[in-house]
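ok so I'm stuck.
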Amino acid sequence: MTSRSRWGGEWLWASADTNAGCSPLYDQVVEGSFRLRQIVGGIPHWAQVAVRAEPAEHDDVAVLDGILARRRREVYGPTAAVDSPADRRLVAEAVDGARYALRRRGDDATSYLVTVTQIVDAPVDTAVGDVKLAAVAATCQAIGVELKRPPLMGAGGAVFPEDQPGPG
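replied:
not stuck anymore, here's the structure
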């Protein structure tokens, strides 16, 4: 499933799996993915993030082990450089984005474990903040919330409303 988003990208898919036999609190696992593709002021912004969310006792964010190393080796071969400072920044942005969405989702009583399952960047076109914005959108899609003041792409890159003056 693909549809355009007001965030300047595409929702790639949303799915829910019910695990029969589990307690009602833990029976729903949902996935979301978002691809940011936008040019702002002549500067491209591109990132793709996928997440899996499941009800949990408290909000938490995890990342699949070796998430970028696997991708780098698939694209560039077995000798690809992995675990660079840039890779660690991308993972940190994805975690920050998922936490941002969980923190700002409103009065939803359900807590979630959000696992980042995919991060895809384009070395020339992925700027600081792009992965975080894609992670916010993917997490919101997975847990079924719409933020009152979602992040957006501004002239200087991704803008996150909590960093700006005003309510929300």
